[in-house]
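Hey, can you fold this one?
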Amino acid sequence: MDWMLFFIFLASTGAAATTGAMFEPGEWYDDLAKPSWNPPKWLFPVAWTFLYIAMSVAAARVGTHEGSAYALAFFAMQIAFNTLWTPIFFGLKRMKAALGVMVFLWGAVAACLVTFWQIDLIAGLLFVPYLIWVTVAGALNYSVWQLNKDAAPA
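Sure. Predicted structure:
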């Protein structure tokens, strides 16, 4: 694996992670009704740390291969939607709009997984937990929106 390439991809995921620090869930989210299966708060930073490292390893594995242009384009697309979701949901408090972003994020992650898998099996497998997490996050986004339709956006 090219370590410099890994650190470049890790920096891109770090930029996405920064939105989580800038737009923390806070009291607004704490006060919303949530489904019984809502993950505990401590799980989010642990999961995202693992996922961002796994994504970066996967991208670094794929990035050195001939014909990886589409795979890397899907990586760029998914990290862009990943970065966009947090300020829309937690910053603007627009749960329905964030759900729309989540649909595009899920599609981009799925496309990234498939294109990575075609180039490098391990890279594809490293994206499986991310697709599972985004699926759960999408269901949570939808559930929280449905349970709090009267919550005013920012």
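DSSP finds seven helices and no strands in the chain. Let me know if you want another pass with a different chain boundary.
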